[in-house]
Amino acid sequence: MKKLTANELRKLYIDFFVSKGHKQIRGASLIPENDPTVLFTTAGMHPLVPYILGAEHPEGKRLTDYQKCIRTGDIDSVGDPHHLTFFEMLGNWSLGDYFKQEAISYSYEFLTKVLEIDPSRLSVTVFRGDDTVPRDEVAAERWKALGIPEERIFYKGREDNWWGPAGETGPCGPDSEMFIDTGRPACGPDCQPGCSCGKYFEIWNDVFMGYKKEADGTYHEMERKCVDTGMGIERTVAILQGKKSVYETEVFAPIISGIEELSGIKYGEDEDKDVSVRIIADHIRTSVFILGDQKGVAPSNVGQGYILRRLIRRAIRHARKLNIPQGFMSKLAKIVLSLYAEPYPELAENKDFIFTELEKEEEKFYDTLIKGEREFDKMLPNLMKGNARVISGRTAFKLYDTYGFPIELTEELAKENGFTVDKKGFEEAFKKHQELSRSGAEQQFKGGLADHSELTTALHTATHLLHAALRKVLGTHVGQKGSNITAERLRFDFTHPEAMTKEQIKEVEDLVNEQIKRDLPVTVKTMTLDQARSEGAIAFFDSKYGELVTVYTIGDFSKEVCGGPHVTHTGDMGHFKILKEQSSSAGVRRIKAVLEK
C-alpha cells in the first residue's frame, strides 16, 4: 500500500481518471449556487446536480475533480481524533455514459493497482433490496468477477447503501461502499463493514443513480443513468500512511506544530489539551477556506457567516484554555495558506480579506469575553445572598445567548467563587434554543436540489434578467455575489454601495417585465470562458482559462455564463415584482422578488 501525501493522492486520482477519458473540471465554491437546502457545498456531486438531473455538461459525460466541502452537523463532535468540518472530496462522474460495470472496475483498479492496496484487505457492501427496488446483484457479481470473494460482499439496506433523492422526487439509486480491513480485532461475531469499532475503514463510495422516485413514492428505472463517486482525501491519506487519526498526517501536523509553539504544550501528552488542539486546528483551517473562497463571506449572525463566527469563537475559547495569547489566528492562517497554495490559489488571492476578518473577529470576541466576565461579576453579589451555591441553567444560558459567553468559562468563574453550574438546566435551555433555530432554518431552507420545477426554472431565468437590468440602471460595477431560489421567490445579492431609490427599483422592475413581454428566446451555446467573455458574456465565478462553459443568451438583453436550467422563451414567465431591497453586507445589496401569474 502506497504511503501517499494528500497532494500525491490528489494528483494520482485525477491523472488516473483523465487516463480513462474523464475531463478534469475545477471544484466549485463552498457557497452553493441556487440551493436553498444547505449553507455549504457538502459533497463533490453537489455542484453537479443540474447535470445529474439531465442538463448537458460543457465538458462532456465523463468528469473528475477534487472539491472542497464543509459539513456542519458535527461541529460539536470536532475535537475527537476523527471528525472534521472542512474536508476535500475526490470524485468521478458518468453523466449517462458508463454505469456499474465500468465504475466498479475503475474503483478496483485504482485501489489495487494505483494505491497498491492488498485485495485481501478489501470488503464491499451493496444494496440488499426491498419491496420497491430489487437487490443489486449486478454490483455484487461485478465485485466477484474482479476477485472479491462472496464472504467479503455484504448486502445492506437503504440506511447504508442507498442515495437520494435530494428532494422528495428525482434521481436516486443504490451505492456500493469499499472498506479496508485495518487489522484491528473484530468486536464480535457480527462485526462487518459499517461497524463503529474501527476494524473496517470506508475508503470510497460508488453511487449508481439509475432510478427516479416519483411523487407517489414509486420508482422507475431511468434511461439516462449516472454514476457519482466520492473519496475523502484526509481520511484516505490517514489509512494509507497507517495513522490512527487524520490529525497525525501532514495535512494537520504543521498547524499543530504552530499551536504547540504558541501554547508551549506538547501534543499527545494530555488528552484534554489534545482536544483543544484539534478543535483549533480544524476550525482555523475551515475558517480560512470560508473566508478565502471565491464567494468568501465575513463573520456575521446569519447563514454561512454565523457558522464562520461560531468556528472562530470556538477556536478562540480553546486557545484561551491553552493560554495562547491574542493574535494567534493570523499566525495559524499563514500555515494553512502555505499548505494549500497550489491546489487552491483563491486562498492566496484573498489573503488580505482572510487576515483582516480573522483579526477583527478575534479582537471582537475578546471584548465579548471581557463583557461576559463583567456581567458575571455584576450577578455575583445577588448569587452570594442565596444559600445554594448553584448558578441556574437559565442564568448560564443568558450569559451564553446574550453575551456570547461560553458555558465552560461560566463554569470556570463559578468554580473560582465556590459555585457550580446547573449544566443540565443549561443544556435544556440550549436544546430549546436549538429546536427553535432548527425550526426557523427548516423554513428558511425549505426546497430541494431536485426542485427544478417550471416555477423555479422561470425564477432562475428571472435572475439573469434582473442582473442585466441592474447593470443598465445602476452601472456595470454591479456583479452577482450570490443567489438563492425557492419555489416561492428569488433572492439576488449584488455589489452596490448604497440603497436603491424607489425610482431605481421601479425602473429595474419595468425593464425586466418589458423583456418578459417581448417573449425573448433563450438560447444556449458551449464555448471556452475566453470566448464567452469576448462575446460580452457576464461570468462572475471562478474557472480555469480555456475551460468550456455554457452561455445562456436571452434575446438582445442578457448573455451570461451559467449551468441552467432556464425557460426556452420569456413570454410565459409571469409578472416580475420586487418585494424588498436591503443591505446584505458591506457593499452588497439584496433583492427579493417573485413572479406573479
UniProtKB/TrEMBL annotation:
Catalytic activity entry: tRNA(Ala) + L-alanine + ATP = L-alanyl-tRNA(Ala) + AMP + diphosphate
One matching Pfam family: tRNA-synt_2c
CDD domains registered for this protein in UniProt: AlaRS_core
Cofactor(s) this protein cannot do without: Zn(2+)
Molecular function per GO: alanine-tRNA ligase activity; aminoacyl-tRNA deacylase activity; ATP binding; tRNA binding; zinc ion binding
Protein name from the UniProt record: Alanine--tRNA ligase
SMART domains with a match to the protein in the record: tRNA_SAD
Record note on cofactor: Binds 1 zinc ion per subunit.
Domain Alanyl-transfer RNA synthetases family profile: 4-597
Alphabetical UniProt keywords: Aminoacyl-tRNA synthetase, ATP-binding, Cytoplasm, Ligase, Metal-binding, Nucleotide-binding, Protein biosynthesis, RNA-binding, tRNA-binding, Zinc
UniProt-annotated location(s): Cytoplasm
Principal place of residence: cytoplasm
UniProt binding sites for Zn(2+): H460, H464, C562, H566
Listed EC numbers: 6.1.1.7
Organism field: Candidatus Ornithospirochaeta avicola
GO biological process: alanyl-tRNA aminoacylation
Domains as described in the record: Consists of three domains; the N-terminal catalytic domain, the editing domain and the C-terminal C-Ala domain. The editing domain removes incorrectly charged amino acids, while the C-Ala domain, along with tRNA(Ala), serves as a bridge to cooperatively bring together the editing and aminoacylation centers thus stimulating deacylation of misacylated tRNAs.
Protein's job: Catalyzes the attachment of alanine to tRNA(Ala) in a two-step reaction: alanine is first activated by ATP to form Ala-AMP and then transferred to the acceptor end of tRNA(Ala). Also edits incorrectly charged Ser-tRNA(Ala) and Gly-tRNA(Ala) via its editing domain.
Family the UniProt entry places it in: Belongs to the class-II aminoacyl-tRNA synthetase family.
